[in-house]
Design goal:
The protein is of the alpha/beta class. It has a single domain (about 5-245), classed as Spore Coat Polysaccharide Biosynthesis Protein SpsA, Chain A. About 40% of the residues lie in helices and about 15% in strands. The protein contains nine helices and seven strands; from the N terminus they run βαβαβαβαβααβααβα. Strands 3-2-1-4-6-5-7 form a seven-stranded mixed beta sheet, with helices on both faces. Helix 6 (about 130-150) packs parallel to helix 9 and helix 8 runs parallel beside helix 9 (about 215-235). The longest helix is centred in the last third of the chain and has 22 residues, at about 215-235. The radius of gyration is 17 Å and the shape is globular.
Length: about 250
């Protein structure tokens, strides 16, 4: 715990058996209370590895629901466990769990409701081996998103994220896509709901075995990001009313 707040790490997993152990071993259990792993119908032995290294809370999807669908299961379980701070760490070891304490303290101290680990602040992305086309796509999409949302982030595409319980209980993530664009829809919801977002510099590693979407999926994702940003613009200008921006009732 941090300041009496329960910290739960969630891991959306797909074919992560080779890297899960390394990721898990870097978690600081002096502050992390629980770890949840959701396996999205992996074709390897991710679930077996998770059990062997001591993860108690394991959910296995019998059918692949997609990255967004996986996260929905992650956050639902974390809330059920009584989490006050929920931190998503990919089990592919692309992001180091050593930033968990910094992210947890920012939320537990009431400074922010959302914290992102940014690969773009500093030189983490290219130094870590991010493909050049992905780097420039990231920069272009982020520039457009900042214009359309009226916010300012260094990137919208990191998978390293921390949230307060309050935030997850207010925004309606269940209506979001089950695909990769879920991440951007969620940030759009958070910004529209006037929650402040913090960013911290995050090193990253690209290597064989780390998860990454191919070029065609990247194009589909990029188009989804642009569509989400346009909807955000229309919503904040009062020109449209999209369901994803309706907050849950207390």
């Amino acid at each position: 715990m941090v300041n009496g707040k329960k910290i739960v790490v969630v891991m959306p997993a797909y074919n992560a058996s080779k890297t899960l152990g390394d990721t898990f071993n870097e978690i600081d259990f002096s502050i992390v209370d629980e770890v949840v792993l959701v396996d999205d119908a992996s074709k390897d032995n991710t679930v077996e590895v998770a059990r062997n290294i001591g993860i108690k809370h394991i959910i296995r999807h019998e059918k692949n629901l997609g990255y967004g669908g996986n996260q929905k299961s992650c956050y639902k379980k974390a809330i059920e466990l009584g989490a006050d701070v929920i931190i998503m760490v990919h089990p592919d070891y692309q992001y180091t769990p050593k930033l968990i304490p910094s992210m947890a303290y920012l939320i537990s101290n009431g400074l922010y409701q959302c914290v992102l680990g940014s690969r773009i602040l500093g030189k983490g992305a290219l130094h870590g081996g991010m493909p050049v086309y992905k780097y420039f796509s990231n920069r272009l999409l982020t520039f457009i998103q900042n214009l359309l949302t009226g916010y300012k982030l260094s990137e919208y595409h990191t998978g390293y994220r921390a949230f307060s319980r309050e935030l997850l209980e207010r925004i309606n993530i269940e209506v979001n896509s089950n695909d990769f664009v879920f991440d951007n829809q969620m940030l759009s919801q958070i910004i529209y709901a006037n929650y402040e977002i913090a960013e911290i510099t995050c090193p990253t590693k690209y290597f064989e075995g780390a998860s990454s979407i191919n070029f065609s999926r990247s194009v589909k994702y990029g188009l989804g990001v642009l569509a989400t940003s346009l909807k955000h613009f229309l919503q904040r200008k009062g020109l449209a009313n999209y369901m994803i921006y309706n907050l849950k009732r207390n």
